Amino acid sequence: MLTANRLSFRYGARAPYVLRDVALSIHPGEIVGLSGPSGRGKSTLGRLLAGHLEPTSGTITIDDRAGSNGQFHPVQYLHQSPIFATDPRWRISRIIAEGWSPDEVTRTELGIDDSWYARYPHEVSGGELQRVALLRALAPGLRYLIADEITSMLDPVAQVEIWQFLLKRVRQGLGILAISHDRALLERIATRVVTI
Ligand SMILES: Nc1ncnc2c1ncn2[C@@H]1O[C@H](COP(=O)(O)OP(=O)(O)OP(=O)(O)O)[C@@H](O)[C@H]1O
């Protein structure tokens, strides 16, 4: 179980607290929806859970232990705009290889086209790059995925395809925190919805 316990965070010693004493847990094999007004700290919470930010106070544990062993982080954060999470000087092949060497089945299931491999991030569409970012995150060590509005810029067909793919992974034990303003989406996919 991924657990945030009395988590507080501020972006600087004099900055106001963005999160105060937040408690949240995500079990393997469940999707927890996270909603709340703009600026309430949803993305900040997601980035804390994935180890991109250090809590000001409080703890994040996986099965009661500190999260990462210093290699591939078992909690991966995916942003709405994957272009910010990719090095523009790297080809798609190198971006994916940073995470792992994906098998043919996973590549096919995600609709990854071999012709994208030689291109740079700006040479594929936003939806294609989101699939690439998702493929990179799916390395064998992945246990929890923070999906921050990951399908909000995609067309309805691509949205359904990506969530159907992820629901299958959830049935195999992946835990997901789905951050979204789209209540209808969260009610369709999430086991429960938490509001901050
Ligand atoms: N790097 C940063 N430095 C300083 N303040 C920041 C930084 N990133 C975010 N904030 C502030 O922290 C607060 C929470 O931002 P965050 O992006 O976590 O909210 P959110 O709930 O995800 O919002 P939205 O629904 O609009 O995406 C906001 O007031 C934002 O301005």
From TrEMBL:
Gene3D superfamilies xref list: P-loop containing nucleotide triphosphate hydrolases (3.40.50.300)
The record's GO molecular-function terms, alphabetically, read: ATP binding; ATP hydrolysis activity
Which Pfam family would be a valid example here?
ABC_tran
Question: Where do the TM regions start and end?
Answer: none
The ABC transporter domain covers: 2-196
The alphabetized list of GO BP terms reads:
transmembrane transport
Superkingdom, taxonomy of origin: Bacteria
Kindly give the InterPro entries that the UniProt entry links to this protein: AAA+_ATPase, ABC_transp_ATP-bind, ABC_transporter-like_ATP-bd, ABC_transporter-like_CS, P-loop_NTPase
Name the record gives this protein: Stage 0 sporulation protein KE
Which organism does this sequence originate in? Roseibium aggregatum
The primary gene name is oppF_5
